[in-house]
Specification:
about 200 residues, mainly alpha, two-stranded antiparallel sheet, 2 strands
């Protein structure tokens, strides 16, 4: 009913995909639509929510600093012009490509978070993951020379670190400890990513 094929092998693990991406099972299809929206925004929904929370915090403060709002808006605008954003590409890849251990008709969030983290944690091969041929279907930039992709990824990751630090600073005491922990973990994750690409 849903024919699949081997897409690629990475670090000894076979990843499969549907031969016709337009006829995904409905549950995986809904997740693909959700993740593709993040891919188009060049940020995850969590990051967008943090931007909105930061703007609310600035607006509701005793002294509204328009320069902070302008800074947040500029950062959002910058993201719209990014050709590639690693987090959303990895999320999209986790929907499109699945292992033999996964049920290909559904999308297990916890399993796929581990899968994404596994992709991120290959210190010497992160760039090669982004150069895998099937990923070129997700982002046309990936047909570029490896040094171009590496430079682009490094630039985006560096900007993302600055943006997460800005969000953390601007949210200050107005955010929950969970949000602070989330933002700090994203900063650390991005800093680690700079050593992988």
């Amino acid at each position: 009913m849903y024919p699949i094929e081997l897409a690629f092998t990475f670090k000894g693990v076979d990843y499969f995909t549907y031969t016709n991406m337009y006829s995904l099972p409905h549950e995986r299809s809904f997740m693909a639509i959700s993740v593709y929206e993040e891919f188009n925004m060049r940020m995850t929904k969590d990051v967008l929510e943090n931007y909105l929370d930061a703007q609310d915090a600035i607006i509701n403060s005793n002294t509204v600093k328009l320069t902070d709002i302008v800074l947040l808006n500029q950062q959002l605008r910058d993201r719209l012009h990014w050709v590639i954003e690693p987090e959303t590409i990895l999320k999209l890849a986790s929907v499109v490509y699945f292992t033999k251990e996964e049920d290909p008709t559904t999308y297990d969030i916890a399993y796929n978070l581990n899968k994404i983290n596994g992709w991120k944690n290959h210190k010497s091969t992160m760039l090669s993951f982004f150069l895998q041929v099937p990923l070129q279907e997700l982002c046309p930039l990936l047909t570029q020379r490896p040094e171009v992709i590496q430079s682009c990824l490094q630039g985006v990751v560096t900007k993302s670190i600055l943006q997460m630090k800005t969000l953390k600073d601007l949210l200050g005491d107005s955010c929950s400890s969970d949000t602070k922990t989330y933002l700090q973990s994203k900063i650390v994750e991005l800093q680690e990513l700079t050593t992988l690409i």
